[in-house]
Design a protein that fits this description.
There is one protein chain. This protein has about 150 residues and is α+β, with helices and mostly antiparallel strands. Helix content is about 20%, strand content about 35%. The chain contains three helices and eight strands; from the N terminus they run βαβββαβαβββ. Strands 2-3-4-1-5-8-7-6 form an eight-stranded mixed beta sheet, with helices on one face.
């Protein structure tokens, strides 16, 4: 079954926010990945991530009921562009690669692709876009979670 989950962007306080949400909703983090955990992080830099930002949260997930609240720390130019109203995305977990492509292609029509669908280092087929109405979407297919 396809699922929709909110994906929040914070200006450096994701960990604080998610520890708060965890205290309210309970449970355990399903995933917590820092920017330093990216494969490119060798010799102090992970892509365009500085050493100062390497401890920030790249991805965190807190299951709440049948949904998952997810987030990241916006860093660099992404943080500069972050404001109320564009600090979230809707994340779709597709059931197949074909479904992910169909949804991605449909939503990106007349929109803006910010990350094309591609295989990722964390094992998913993933892409991001803003649709023609300015709504941010994250499309994800991960075989191990699609069943």
């Amino acid at each position: 079954m396809m699922t929709l989950n909110p994906y929040l962007n914070f200006k450096g306080n994701t960990e604080e926010a998610f520890n708060f949400y965890k205290s309210v909703f309970g449970g355990e983090f399903a995933m917590l990945m820092r920017y330093k955990d990216m494969p490119q992080h060798e010799g102090g830099e992970a892509g365009n991530i500085s050493n100062d930002e390497s401890e920030k949260i790249m991805h965190i997930a807190l299951p709440i009921g049948n949904s998952v609240l997810m987030a990241t720390d916006a860093v660099g130019a992404m943080a500069d562009k972050l404001s109320s109203g564009n600090n979230f995305s809707i994340s779709i977990n597709a059931q197949s690669k074909a479904e992910a492509e169909r949804i991605f292609n449909g939503l990106s029509a007349d929109g803006n692709v910010t990350m094309p669908l591609a295989d990722t280092f964390w094992g998913a087929y993933f892409g991001m876009l803003a649709d023609k109405f300015g709504v941010n979407w994250m499309i994800n297919y991960d075989e191990k979670y699609s069943k």
